[in-house]
Amino acid sequence: MTESLSIRSYTLTMDSHTHDYCQMVLPLQGNIEMAMDNYQGAVGVGEAIIIAPGQEHGFRANVASRFVVADLSDVPASAQLPDSPLLMLDKATQAYLMFIEAKLATDMGEQDMSMLVQLFKQQVNTLPTHRFPDARISAAKTHIHDNLASALPLAELADVACLGITQFKKRFKAATGMTCGHYITQERMKTARALLTHTDLPVYRVAQEAGYTDLSAFSRRFTAFFGEPPSAYTTRRT
To answer: Cα–Cα distance between 30 and 60 in angstroms, integer?
Structure first.
């Protein structure tokens, strides 16, 4: 096979298949839900999922989410983990994914692609010792990404994680480095930006998809988060 990197998006309809090569899926924006014999749950920004050759896997994601997908002839050495197909990424690797996204937006020949793949594999092999995600928090994250348009009260998320509210808050921050409220806001804003960039939805519909019934509140939060209003993105569509 010819090794390659690509940018992909998926739909909310669960699909499944196998392939005879190794694949790594690395979220740039949003989550992908995976169903495999050795992993069930969401994979988000800062993580990567490794799919072994011949391994059947189900997958689905919000259409606004985007992923770097690496089709590889073999699994990078640092990714050959015995207990989990999930890999935790450091900041340098996450930054490199943004570089890959920018490079893939240009015309690339076979030699350029080969070099990009080799650099990707080298970067993956520099990753430090990884920590694995808390399965209960992963379940809560999946629920968040499946229901961004809903209210998502803390008690509901704690129930999904089968934890008390206090314990849930502590474990969520330990797993993600931020409060649950901050995480929800971040994911809503990222989803809103993706919808404004990649679809023709009007701003009020984007606000609804991001969980806001008050358009003014959505616009204020979006502007504070990204430094420019939603209208700046709709203007660029024309």
So the answer is: 11
Quick one: tokens of 142?
Answer: 């999946």
Eight-state DSSP code of residue 36: E
Contact 64, 29 (CB under 8 A): yes
For 86, what's the count of Cα atoms within 13 Å in the CB-facing half-sphere?
A: 24
* Beta carbons within 10 angstroms of residue 9's beta carbon: 17
Listed in sequence order, the residues at least 6 apart from 26 whose beta carbon sits closer than 8 Å to its beta carbon are: 47, 48, 67, 68, 69, 70, 89, 97
* pLDDT tens digits, 68-82: 999 999 877 766 555
pLDDT at 83: 60
Q: What is the DSSP string of 51-87?
A: E-TT--EEEE--TT-EEEEEEESS--GGG--SS-SEE
Query: Which residue in the block uniquely carries the two structure tokens 């990222």?
Result: 190
pLDDT of res. 79: 61
Amino acid at 169: K
Q: What whole-number distance in Å separates Cα of residue 73 and Cα of residue 93?
A: 20
Q: Are 70 and 32 in contact (CB under 8 A)?
A: no
Residue located via tokens 């391994």: 55
Residue 118 φ then ψ, to 5°: -65, -40
* pLDDT score of 91: 81
Write b or e for each residue in 137-147: b if 16 or more Cβ atoms lie within 10 A of its Cβ, otherwise e.
Answer: bbbbbbbbbee
pLDDT band, residue 28 (cuts 50/70/90) = very high
The rounded distance, in Å, linking the Cα atoms of 220 and 225 is 9
